[in-house]
Amino acid sequence: MAEYRTHMKIIGDILATTRDDLQDEDGATVTYLIRKANISHSRISRILKTLVSQGLLEQVDTQGYNKYKISQTGREFLQAYYKFTSFADNFGLSI
Amino acid sequence: MEFLLENILNLIGFLVGLGIGIMSLIGFRNTGSPTLFRLTIAFFSISLGFFVIWAGYMAEDFVIQSGNIERWVQTLGIAIQTVGYFFIAFSHSIKSFFPKSSYFRSVGILPLFLVSSVQLEHLFRSVSFILLVYGAIETMLSYIDNKNKGAISVSIGLALLALGEFLGWYSFVFPESILYSVSMVIKIGGLIALFIPVSKVPLTKIKFDEGLE
């Protein structure tokens, strides 16, 4: 049975991809993130917009299309996300 | 002896609840997770509940000196703790939406019929017992899914708190017996078990980040 992912887990997956699994040093395209994070285009567009506005991701305009890279704030958020995921796991909960 | 155990229990309950509540709050401030927000409310409520009872005992011991804690203070403290247990159970119920077992649904109604009087304290104790049992079962089920060893400790902690609550409630039937002291020792053990895995979560480099709100 497929595991249900919370909104927070999807954000964590996107940030982890932009930190650990980039296509090149310019960042990751939307198409690449869709494939890696396993999420629809409409949903990832909304999430990416939010993450950029919150300063967790940096949007880079490369040859007419956008690429995304994790920011320093994003790295700190991801670190906190992993720590508190294990904290919530102790209570049998997902964040 | 009972008075000493009661003081130790309520002080440990206050400190453990406060500790886990603060960690949950830091987590919520850093991630914005609704789960951590619910855990924050849950553990601050549990902490406050224990503190109210502890303050009641202190006031009785040093100021009022009537030999018995005011009944309304005890009831208020237990009621506040029950709110905390509700939020732990609520977090699990959101995850699994509703307990699938028809047996568990019926157990939810049973203790209300077993209440010997209409005293609010009995009512809150019985509700706390149900919520704690539910939380313990759900946490154990999550361990079976994820194999996170910390979940065993939390599950045992919640189960011991439930057992302590039940024995404390049952001791009203046998006053002057050892049951109430045993229930408090079990609850102290439960609180310690609850805190063990949480204390191992490293909080280095975690800070409040105003930019994430």
TrEMBL record, chain A:
Under the heading InterPro entries, the entry gives:
ArnR1-like_HTH, WH-like_DNA-bd_sf, WH_DNA-bd_sf
Q: What is the superkingdom listed in this entry's lineage?
A: Archaea
Q: Where is the ArnR1-like winged helix-turn-helix domain?
A: 5-86
A Pfam cross-reference name = HTH_45
Q: What is the name of the protein in this document?
A: ArnR1-like winged helix-turn-helix domain-containing protein
Protein source organism: Nitrosopumilus piranensis
UniProtKB/TrEMBL annotation, chain B:
Q: Keyword Hydrolase: yes or no?
A: no
Q: Which UniProt keywords apply?
A: Membrane, Transmembrane, Transmembrane helix
Q: Which residues are listed as membrane-spanning?
A: 12-28, 35-59, 71-90, 102-120, 126-144, 151-172, 178-198
Taxonomy, superkingdom: Archaea
Q: What protein does this entry describe?
A: Histidine kinase N-terminal 7TM region domain-containing protein
User: Which species is listed as the source?
Assistant: Nitrosopumilus piranensis
